[in-house]
Design brief:
Order of helices and strands of chain B: HHHHHHHEEEHHHHEHHH
Distance between the termini of chain A: 35 Å
Structural class of chain A: mainly alpha
Distance between the termini of chain B: 40 Å
Largest interface: A-B, 43 and 42 residues
Radius of gyration of chain A: 23 Å
Number of strands of chain A: 2
Oligomer: heterodimer
Shape of chain A: globular
CATH architecture of chain B: Orthogonal Bundle
Order of helices and strands of chain A: HHHHHHEEHHHHHHHHHH
Number of helices of chain B: 14
Number of helices of chain A: 16
CATH topology of chain B: ABC transporter involved in vitamin B12 uptake, BtuC
Strand content of chain A: under 5%
CATH class of chain B: Mainly Alpha
Helix content of chain A: 55-70%
Shape of chain B: globular
Amino acid sequence: MSETTTTRPAARMSWASSLRSSLGSRLRRTPRWAQFLLMVALALFCYLLPLLEPPVISTPGTDFGAVLFTVSIYVLVAVGLNIVVGYAGLLDLGYVGFYAIGAYTVGVLTSHHATWPWLLSLPAALVVTMISGVLLGWPTLRVRGDYLAIVTLGFGEIVRLTLINSEWLGDARGISSIPAPPSLPLFEIPHLDWSTGVPLVDFSDTTTFIEFGVTDPVPFYWLALTLVILVLLADKRIKNSRVGRSWEATREDEDAAELMGVPTFRFKLLAFALGAFVGGIAGSMFATRQTFINPESFTLLISILFLSAVVLGGQGNRWGAVIGAIVVAYLPERFRGFEQWRVLVFGIALMLLAIYRPQGLLPPRRTVRAQRMEEESQALEVGEADPDAELATAGPVARNPVDDAPVPPDEERSPRG
Amino acid sequence: MHFQYVFDNFASLFIGGLVFGSVYALIALGYTMVYGVLQLINFAHSEVFMFGTFATVWALWLIGADATTMGVALVLSIAFAMVASMITSGGVALLLERVAYRPLLKRGAPRLIALISAIGASFVLSEAMGLRGAIASALGLSDTLGRYVARSRENLGMPTDRTTTVQFELFGYGVTNVNIIVVVSAVLMMVAADQFIRRTRTGRGIRAVAQDPETASLMGVNSTRVIQITFLIGGMLAGAAATLYMLHIGATRYNAGFLLGVKAFTAAVLGGIGNLRGALVGGLVLGVAEGLGAGLFGNEWRHVVAFVLLILILLFRPTGLLGESLGKARA
């Protein structure tokens, strides 16, 4: 009777997940040094992107460097929010609050009330956002899942309304003339010019390495990209540590995790604080580049865009979050004529994703594996799968070492995503 | 802190708060009923309300009511606008249930996914209203629809005469006719909804599904239908609230729903989400707290008071003042 119900989800999953897992497993089967070289090449390409200005990717009408900067800020935010939403499973609708706190701390310390050097204000901003994350999390992380979403939404709005109402923070006019990071002008790098169809080195259009000016956003992009890479590396380390496993356990079943000795509250708080920290980095970078901030930049809509980046990409997968952020930030800039439809399109995308692909475009490996396991155990219950399949999906933990059941190499490696 | 101001104007702040609070309470009913039946925060309910405010204005345009309409004609046209608004909001709520929730329920999706879908639906609805001019011109209907789609991002005002007359004095505050209409009709609607849930056969079905959906369907309750009716009633109450809001405030815009929605949700949680009478109590308490808070800290902190109250309630008494229960016998 349930033949159709068991085979259909498998069929729906297949095309996307098989493509993904074949790509993923090929990547994982390549030797470590090759993986490392690939990553370095990718990073190098990202650094050179604003100078190359490739014709299809670059944005007509707006400065390509500025767009790339915006994209990298969104990537930072998405990776930070992914810690909270994806790893720890805490739906946060007020993430923009931390972003705003980061931006305003830099603004207040460097321009509005003090004249701290930029390099000193950045760590201060990060400490302040982290403290604010703990302050918000300490009381609120005790409430239930969807209530937490509403509480954080309230927090984001309180931050914004306080910024508007508080004279000390420059009320609705905001803070202006935020200084740039210290420059170190060494040499000039020319851009490429594609206007004739073939790439020509254009010596009239150069970027000074490294000078943070108002006119050239490229050095800001380089700085943001460096921060993205650092955050991604740290994210990888944390995800694969005891902390990451505790988050995962907490997200899957809080009571079971607590019983196994995971201090869930403390780890949720840590997720909040780290998420806030990354949000603070993004916010302070945003303030530095803009040199001017006001409460208008920190509305609920921005929170929702951040969230849709994470959900779109795949909660719990850092590369998913990166891709989601690129989609959310880049596509509207590339197709400027459709800018007014942006929110509508993201609303529709959120709905469609929730209904048809709640795990996102690039779901974490663990989710894919869990889903496959569930499908096969369901198939087993109806009695149409062979026992080998069960052993294969149970993975290395449950596998009997004496048993030589065929285990696909892809399953055997890396016990966690 | 303006304590002296609050003492001097206590009656006006209090009664003004009650008027706002009764609008919150009507919207809160929609949140509370859906939460009671589905354990789901219907984030897009605020947009259902927003559609009602627009339907009110459009209905008045349609029958040609303007600032010169007076007396019985005014009463009749506002009654017509309210019916139109209730139909529109009820329709939007039904559509929402069909498009954004039913597919998820069928798949047994986790609640957070349903919330994300609701957030998406909320943005789609408010943007569809904000982009109605662009949509109409894309369809080539700009000229036919004319003022209905013009200036779609701007405020839309009530076309009828909005001068109010003081009916009687209460502790030194002149109570206007609009105040009376808003509070009385809100309370009447709520009593009607409460009685419907408590006394009718359908109401019993709603309570049964709220208590235990599986057993209810085993007992022959059509749970899909019950969910639809729940959305429909919630939407119609939001539509009524929309007309009352337009009488009281007099202007709306495509994103007017959000703030009202969060406040109504606060009211629902304050009274005990899932509890119909709790929604009334919560709405009135929130309205008064907000009015007094605005007096105390200054009007620009009005919304902050509501948000802080929301956070405090969720922290200290997440079950609300009257407790969560749609399924319980006391409903």
